[in-house]
Amino acid sequence: MKINETGRVGAINNYQRQIESQRKDTDSKARRKDEVSISAEAKELLKAQEVGFNPERAERIEDLKSQVTSGTYHVETGKIADKLAPYFKSFLNEK
């Protein structure tokens, strides 16, 4: 009569190896740190924003925002018509 089968001992060893490999994986993951990388395009955009910052323009934008929110902003229809006229002329000439 056979008490211990050789296959069962191997199965236990495989189980122990699996547990050990999982422990190693969790240890290596715990050591990893998060990294952030900024692309070259994003760096260019940031640089352009810094160089292109104009305090007068920023003040004008804030003034316009406050006028729009308070409802006192006045649309100059003549300027809009002057800007749109060339577009419509070219559109009509195409047809």
UniProtKB/TrEMBL annotation:
Family membership noted in the UniProt record: Belongs to the FlgM family.
GO terms, biological process: bacterial-type flagellum organization; negative regulation of DNA-templated transcription
Record field: compositional bias (Basic and acidic residues): 20-36
Domain named Anti-sigma-28 factor FlgM C-terminal: residues: 34-84
InterPro entries cross-referenced by the UniProt entry: Anti-sigma-28_factor_FlgM_sf, FlgM, FlgM_C
Superkingdom: Bacteria
Stretches for region Disordered: 1-36
Assigned keywords, A-Z: Bacterial flagellum biogenesis, Cell projection, Cilium, Flagellum, Repressor, Transcription, Transcription regulation
Name this polypeptide is given: Negative regulator of flagellin synthesis
Transcription found in the keyword field: yes
Lineage: Bacteria, Bacillati, Bacillota, Bacilli, Bacillales
